[in-house]
């Protein structure tokens, strides 16, 4: 029944007279990330459209970065074409040929080949929003190239947590800054609250990225890339200690991320929900990873159950405006994690 209501809600939100380019963006979002799609379409407009396009721009950049076959030089060329296309408003000469060389999913390739549709929607945004998206996507792309060169080109490693935070800033922390800038343009946020959002914006992105890195250890290792810093992978160290160190640092960012959400005005229920869902999913994933660490260490990828996903989804839908309920739920889960991390 609940999911039937959800499907009905999503159908209602998508009934419109939008352009084919606009419809393509949402169709593509649904194909490349169904979970992000469900979260995004619940947002109010125009924030919904801004977030959709921002995600798709970042997804194209991520597709280039994650290509397992392309050389660093080829990725560099792809990033240059991508940035020039975003600046000019149309895919530049050579873009489609580059996309044809990508080793990505069909849905990701379809998105990149239809870059012009994405740029058409982007071009209709206010100049202030276009400037926000362009600035932060450029920062992301430049950082991705920097670390592709370091990790894949020179075969160097991430030496310590400072370098890991630097990498995570480029691929995720900057997204927190992007979202905060968009929110500040479209929401009535008191100056003191905005200052707190800006203070914790990077932590919001880093928390989610740390969980991904912890959970994707085996997948990344198969690609020949390890994002875990050398300082927590010392020779002779037992398998649980690196996980404990990574999880403790991640938990600090998770706590800051929850503070981030608390400063979003309570009347902005959908925006709060948009931020709370991935954060609570990340907490649940980190809990499960650490519960199973005696059996698997940090080597196996875990996935939270559908039952837990449903609970979190409807909990957030129901209580995103109620700080005291959110506080109680969050503190209980953090206490559980701290207990495991002391063990």
Radius of gyration: 20 Å
CATH classification, class level of the largest domain: Mainly Alpha
Strand-pairing-aware structural class: mainly alpha
Encode the helix/strand succession as letters: HHHHHHHHHHHHHHHHH
Which whole number gives the mean pLDDT?
90
* Largest sheet descriptor: none
DSSP helical segment count: 17
CATH architecture identity of the largest domain: Orthogonal Bundle
Structural commentary:
The protein folds into two domains: 19-156, Farnesyl Diphosphate Synthase, CATH 1.10.600; 157-343, Farnesyl Diphosphate Synthase, CATH 1.10.600. The protein is mainly alpha-helical and 343 residues long. The longest helix has 27 residues, at 127-153. It is built from 17 helices and no strands. The chain is globular, with a radius of gyration of 20 Å.
Brief overview, please?
With 343 residues, the chain is mainly α. It contains 17 helices and no strands.
Structural features:
Farnesyl Diphosphate Synthase; globular; 343 residues; mainly alpha; 2 domains; 76% helix
Can you lay out the helices and strands and say which pair or pack?
Elements: H1 2-14, H2 20-32, H3 34-41, H4 47-66, H5 72-88, H6 95-100, H7 106-113, H8 115-123, H9 127-153, H10 161-186, H11 191-215, H12 217-222, H13 240-262, H14 269-291, H15 293-296, H16 306-319, H17 323-342
């Amino acid at each position: 029944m609940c999911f039937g209501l959800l499907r009905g809600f999503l159908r209602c939100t998508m009934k419109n007279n939008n352009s084919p380019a606009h419809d393509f963006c949402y169709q593509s979002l649904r194909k490349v990330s169904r979970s992000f799609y469900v979260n995004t379409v619940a947002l109010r407009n125009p924030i919904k459209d801004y977030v959709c396009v921002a995600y798709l721009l970042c997804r194209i950049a991520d597709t280039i970065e994650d290509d397992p076959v392309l050389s660093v030089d080829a990725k560099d060329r792809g990033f240059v074409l991508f940035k020039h296309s975003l600046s000019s408003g149309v895919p530049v000469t050579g873009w489609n040929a580059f996309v044809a060389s990508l080793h990505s999913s069909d849905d990701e390739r379809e998105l990149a080949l239809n870059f012009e549709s994405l740029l058409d929607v982007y071009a209709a945004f206010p100049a202030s929003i276009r400037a926000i998206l362009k600035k932060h996507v450029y920062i992301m792309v430049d950082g991705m190239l920097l670390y592709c060169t370091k990790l894949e080109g020179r075969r160097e490693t991430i030496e310590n947590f400072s370098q890991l935070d630097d990498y995570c800033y480029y691929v995720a922390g900057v997204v927190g800054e992007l979202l905060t800038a968009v929110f500040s343009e479209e929401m009535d946020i008191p100056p003191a609250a905005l200052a707190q959002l800006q203070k914790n914006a990077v932590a919001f992105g880093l928390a989610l990225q740390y969980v991904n890195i912890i959970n994707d250890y085996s997948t990344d290792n198969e690609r020949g890339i390890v994002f875990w810093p050398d300082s927590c992978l010392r020779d002779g160290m037992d398998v649980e200690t690196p996980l404990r160190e990574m999880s403790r640092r991640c938990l600090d960012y998770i706590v800051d991320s929850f503070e981030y959400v608390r400063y979003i005005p309570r009347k902005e229920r959908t925006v709060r929900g948009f931020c709370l869902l991935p954060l609570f999913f990340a907490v649940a994933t980190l809990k499960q990873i650490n519960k199973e660490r005696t059996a698997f260490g940090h080597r196996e990828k875990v996935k939270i159950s559908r039952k837990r996903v449903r609970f979190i989804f409807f909990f957030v839908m129901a209580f995103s405006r109620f700080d005291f309920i959110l506080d109680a739920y969050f503190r209980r889960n953090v206490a559980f994690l701290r207990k495991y991390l002391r063990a």
